[in-house]
Write a structure and sequence with these properties.
With 343 residues, this protein is an alpha/beta fold. The chain folds into 2 domains: 212 residues, Spore Coat Polysaccharide Biosynthesis Protein SpsA, Chain A; 119 residues, no CATH class. Strands 1, 2, 3, 4, 5, 6, 7, 10, 11 and 12 form a 10-stranded mixed beta sheet that branches. A 3-stranded mixed beta sheet has the order 9-8-13, with no helix packed on it. Strand 6 and strand 7 form a beta hairpin. Helix 7 packs parallel to helix 9 and helix 8 runs antiparallel to helix 11. The protein is globular.
């Protein structure tokens, strides 16, 4: 018996991992009613291979490579026939009960619109890749349990603000317009939808007992532009005016810290390009801001958090930088303790 779930897989040149992904989808219990592959202009044999592995596969072709993952995700969501859509990438393996457990929690948890699974490293299956995320108030990620050893089943986490692998209530997610297609792939392109859903009064949950595995590639500088640009889009579109005013000194301090990281990565050009593009797009950003703020039902205090910023392990090899990170985290935690009661 099939479940009333659409599985949507996003793909670009995924021939090395997509066959394994599809084989894991074929082992789901129960099987999904439909599986959709949204191909973003692949030039390899991945789509052909996928149709051979799963003849019932529906293929949605973007026509050319958009390099905009949110456009690809939205194309899959619009093509899906069912209310519940499990959205995943082409480098994910799933435990047979993963989607079933997410569906069960979606039906049990109040006001749930999104549920995300725990992802472990595919090549190191006792280590956590993602266990839910929180949005640091300065516009960065607090990656819960990242790289930690997985020990048993953790409780469901309410208020997660990130994760591109997810089960979605399509009908309710459509009320905020699905994913923001203006975001570049690299940081918070998925999480920004979570933020808008939570602002509207819905709930997003992380479900650690639903498990998948990720073929992770360590990245260096190729996403620096998106990290700079997307951060400002989140802050300018989703934060209230009061929050922007109260956090202005922290934003200034973080820019100094961020610039030092960018210099260490050798990505200064991407830093300036990301900021310049935000200025060019300011009128459009303000239009989207009016829509988001008009739908707001809760305060930023219910979304924003403080805690240790996630820093790439490659940067932590520098002992001076490790000390600097501790100082930075202490400063931002102290500042949040002072201002959060006013937000």
């Amino acid at each position: 018996m099939n479940s009333d779930v659409s599985v949507v897989i996003t793909n670009y040149n995924g021939q090395d991992t997509l066959p394994k992904t599809l084989e894991s989808v074929k082992q789901l219990d129960p099987l999904p009613s439909e599986v959709i592959l949204v191909d973003d202009g692949s030039t390899d044999q991945s789509t052909k291979m996928a149709m051979e592995i799963l003849p019932s596969l529906r293929v949605v072709r973007m026509g050319k490579n958009t390099a905009r993952l949110n456009q690809v995700r939205n194309a899959g969501l619009r093509a899906a026939l069912h209310k519940f859509v499990f959205l995943m990438d082409n480098d994910i393996l799933l435990e047979p009960n993963c989607v079933r457990r997410l569906v069960e929690e979606m039906g049990r948890l109040p006001q749930a619109v999104v549920c995300t699974p725990r992802l472990l490293f595919a090549n190191e299956r006792n280590r956590i890749y993602t266990d839910g995320q929180k949005l640091h108030y300065i516009g960065s990620t607090i990656a819960l349990n990242r790289n930690a050893v997985a020990k048993g089943q953790s409780p469901v986490v309410e208020g997660t603000t990130g994760g591109g692998i997810l089960l979605m209530d399509k009908e309710n997610a459509e009320k905020v317009g699905f994913f923001n297609e203006s975001f570049s792939m690299g940081w918070c392109d998925d999480g920004e939808l979570f933020i808008r859903l939570i602002l509207k009064g819905f709930k997003c949950y992380h479900v650690p007992h639903a498990v998948g595995y990720h073929y992770h590639k360590y990245r260096t500088t190729e996403r620096a532009y998106a990290q700079v640009r997307n951060r400002w889009l989140v802050i300018l579109e989703d934060y209230s005016a009061r929050t922007l005013f109260l956090l202005a000194p922290a934003f200034f301090a973080y820019e100094i810290f961020l610039l030092s990281m960018i210099l260490l990565k050798g990505s200064l050009r991407d830093y300036w390009r990301g900021n310049a593009d935000v200025l060019k797009e300011l009128s459009t950003i303000l239009q989207r801001r009016r829509i988001t703020q008009g739908q707001r039902k809760i305060s930023d205090r219910d979304i924003l958090s403080s805690g240790d910023l996630y820093i790439s392990p490659t940067l932590l090899n520098n002992s001076v930088f490790r000390v600097g990170i501790k100082i930075v985290n202490s400063f931002f935690s102290g500042y949040w303790h002072i201002v959060k009661v006013f937000i």
